[in-house]
Design brief:
homotetramer; Chorismate synthase, AroC fold; 5-stranded antiparallel sheet; 356 residues; alpha+beta; 23% strand
């Protein structure tokens, strides 16, 4: 079940050390002039080896489009694309078919399918998220034509938390540093922490926050395709994601209705809410305010430190990871969160047209 | 888009003050002897007026089955059911078509559809969740035959939080009190708080925790139908739900990999993990450990206290709610969370059979 | 899998002798003023006992709407409806659980599900098509606002065939006779034949032809949701349907390209084709010409004449049907073909909006 | 909407003269050892230039697999594959963007999408069916393990019709001649006819018949996913297909129930029907008898003879096709019909497992 979306759909394929990773986008509106450079920029934000705090695997991650485009424009036909895998060091994984790495998908994949591709995590590798970034980058371009923008950023790494409300931040600073935190001072500390964690042969978790602006009123399809439940699903399907909260999120649990309710008011003839605890979504439908949510990511499961585990024959063994891995997934997760958000918003934007 | 599920599917219908609320369950396995009493018990756990801390609306909420059952057994045909609405006091809502209640779905529904049924919130009312409870109750019965159990409970009301790990609690105590908290002392405090909140013409939020036991290894369908992303989607589609976390959830963001990883070990020839930060799901697939997650609910938006809002003509107005409403949604949300969880687990259980 | 459609969806439920038959329509555009009388008229065209050449079962078949409508208008919420079964004579079927009627679904249902509701054919009864007629009647009303019309008619009963091209017929005469054949003289013969067949304790097959006019260019979704493949699927899912042909259909097999090709020409600035062997669809997409297709229906399987069959215990037995049945399904199939066609056209009409 | 299937799904991509044509198969059972040679053989049956009666376009049509396979076995991950286009002679189509070829999809694609890839028909080319053949070839291999076989053959070319019932034919002779007709004498005549037609700068239609044997009882999902309605949909989505009939098909319209009904009997403890007018499907579910159906294909629309048409600017013009095209699609359609049938049968086979 490797297809995401209702009208704008991505079918994804590929494994970490297979020939290629790619996807097919079905339902892309026709006649869109694509900016291929912008797509590559998004892939570069996700790609390994982009900075000292990511994995050192070297991949060009250059996307090749195979169909659905004629003279630079989408035709309405499915858009197939792929990225060839180049820098596989499958030797690093030679012994991995024999054991189940802790907190990886080795055990569950093997149990479910009775077989698994062990090279670099196979299908369960975070590398396969690059398909999402391509489909999200195209969605973003279409949304931009409608003036809808999406910006995610790193708001927590380990115990370093960006407390400020997003509205007080200069989100354009996100790309000014390699950890993608709009607070430059905190960014420096986060980078230091990640480097320290790597030295400790360990990894660390974090949080990505995301803001979508200028989303029109009306996106979202009750009863079971509420906009926030789909955003949650989309973002929690990213590797290592563990939690999602919209607007006030978990903090709403300790609030009173009189504190939490977002009162309506009028400015320049336009209805808005004076606060935005709703995170831009009410009753599962966008209300025109900023959509705001947060996604928590666990520490990367691959650590160099020795751990106990079990092998395929049922023996308890000690395991130390080799290979090249990220000490913290969050900086590279930022563009993936944006991509998933873009896909959801475009999908619901297209769905909403059926009633107009 | 009122259908939930892939193979076990609920299509839901109805409005708070319409003739009836109900649904159609498609894909229910055939030949199952249904225990109708158990289904009604689940509805009773959700129904209004069940205790002093819920809304005083009186509804029998007796479910009537229309199809798909022959001599007490499912036939594989769609199971249609409904509950007639009886105690509508639509007069309470007489003026509601004219204005948008804060943090309700009035504004977004009206903007999206250009029309809305204002009586009791119409389609956006939490009353429509009763369809979920019926479909979930049937799913539960089928899961029970496979020894899979699901238990949710109230773990937070306002600032009263049940800190203990679920594994140290006697979850069978959940139904021993009207707030559905397995810690009896905390339950008393929670009930007091809710009553106080009602007196204050206010409402309060909370958290429901949920545990599923004996889920077999292998449920969940990567890449985009991971078990936890579907559980998130399912539970966040419940009215007033704002946040979801699996296992370690948001707390994983501040952890190191060496702390967070769940080491595998063997007991009696069976693989298990020594800790369960994964919440029973790895790589989107159940690993045989307890599935554990938490869902935050905002305070009910309907408060008696006056609030500012906007009417349909674009005037700012002051609004005080009438009608009968819950001061805290959490006690009645407990069976709904269980129902959504049961539907997801059964759906993935059936999906998993295609490969066996 | 009892849901039909992509954006305009019908989920159907009910059995011939259950409490009720009905459905839920999801995705109906909001704000549509429904003409309930017109819906009932369509049901009356399908209902049993409407004339001397149909089954004598007496059912009012009055549809009751439960949701999705407020003050006579659709709200965008799911529209649930039902028809209560009244004139069940289940006694007629007392012994039917024990044997498999020839060319009925008894054997296959029982084999597939391990259980079946034997009363009147249960879920496999043609009576359950009334849900389609309701959903189709609503679709028709919406299409009519776009000037799209659909007219089916009886073009063959047994060896009596209406040879004339549809464009030479006055299709408005279709409802002028009980067999629904626009050629009045042939209609008389068809009625005689059906009465004769009934007297012979037999049944007879036939063909329904269908024409949709003013369908805009562009409906249909290649590669796998071509307009004609969906029309085929829709109509072949009707009970007793055996064959489908679009435009030239089977006769195209013996034609040359130079005969069969529909040359384009221009009239009043509008592109049209000089012939219409394509039946209004090219490459799976409507081309603006009349959509024309034919559906063959086998003779009703229930005959009074004795037949050999097998019982549930594996004995060969002789069986003679009791109960009240149609000698020819075609006159009552006419409104069902229209309904399925309306659902498909509206669904693709709504799908097409996503690109505009 | 380029995805076909419910559990075994093909997402197809590519254009006639684009870089590549391919697809992604999702839901393939894991652990299957694929015979890649057999897949290529199926592609060779479909490929252009295979004989004197097909188009002379030369393509190796060698399939390359990109994912989902590890050490020759399926892993349960999506199987992406492609065939690079090599022998494009796009010059042949230089002027084709400017006009709408009669009975092609040029006009409808352009009208629907506002743009089209004119090279070789772009997305509407029959060349894109090769994706179906790959997915069907894999489905066939899995079905063969269950002893299910599928054989299609040419039963009509123009006015040359194979009248014999399929059960009297030696279907293994199908591949013994280039027109794929199991009657060798008729095959010679068909080949002559096709060659004559080509000389006449014309094309001719035909019929493909298909038989599936050893299909277990129980495949098919009423109400709306009946086995025959899905087979119809599948086969009518093939380029140039115009009509479908199951078993007795259109001839059932002139039959009486007493003639048409398939009486049940018992042989060696197994239930069977003495005749098979049902074509192996009753009530939308396979009954264990041979599944038998026929698909009509129109004459190829590309003819060398001059025809009138209209250009993009709205002028009537005379058009004569260049390029290399098939004089009759039927011989190459045989493996495509088998492929679609295999996909449908495997899909329903997997669906049926959910209830077991």
């Amino acid at each position: 079940m490797n297809t995401f979306g209702n009208l704008y759909k991505l079918t994804s394929f590929g494994e970490s050390h297979g020939k290629a990773i790619g996807g097919v986008i079905d339902g892309c509106p026709a006649g869109i002039s694509l900016d291929f450079n912008k797509i590559q920029i998004e892939l570069n934000r996700r790609k390994p080896g982009q900075s000292k705090i990511t994995t050192h695997r070297k991949e060009a991650d250059e996307v090749e489009f195979l169909s659905g485009i004629y003279e630079g424009k989408t035709t309405g036909a499915p858009i197939a694309f792929l990225v060839w895998n180049i820098d596989q060091k499958s030797n690093d994984y030679d012994n991995l078919y024999e054991l189940f790495r802790p907190s990886h998908a080795d055990f569950t994949y093997f149990s479910k399918y009775g077989i698994r591709d062990p090279r670099g995590g196979g299908r369960s590798s975070a590398r396969i998220t690059l398909s999402r970034v391509v489909a999200g980058a195209i969605a973003k371009q279409i949304l931009e034509k409608e003036n809808i923008s999406i910006q995610a950023y790193t708001s927590q790494v380990g115990n370093l938390t960006l407390q400020a409300d997003y509205s007080t931040l200069d989100l354009l600073q996100t790309e000014s540093n390699i950890v993608r935190c709009p607070d430059k001072n905190l960014a420096v500390q986060m980078i230091d922490l990640i480097e320290q964690v790597r030295k400790n042969q360990d990894t660390v978790g974090g949080v990505v926050s995301c803001v979508a602006k200028n989303v029109p009123v009306g996106l979202g399809e009750p009863e079971f395709f509420k906009l926030h439940s789909e955003l949650a699903r989309a973002n929690l399907s990213i590797n290592a994601a563990k939690a999602f909260e919209l607007g006030s999120g978990f903090s709403s649990a300790q609030m009173f209705g009189s504190q939490h309710n977002d009162e309506f008011a009028i400015k320049s003839g336009k209805i808005f809410t004076k606060t935005n605890n709703s995170g831009g979504i009410q009753g599962g439908i966008s209300n025109g305010m900023d959509i705001y949510f947060r996604v928590a990511f666990k520490p990367v499961a691959t650590i160099i430190k020795p751990q106990q585990t079990v092998d395929i024959k049922g023996n308890e063994v000690i395991f130390s990871a080799k290979g090249r891995h990220d000490p913290c997934v969050v900086p590279r997760a930022v563009p993936i969160v944006e991509a998933m958000t873009a896909m959801v918003l475009l999908d619901f934007y297209l769905l909403n047209k059926r009633f107009l």
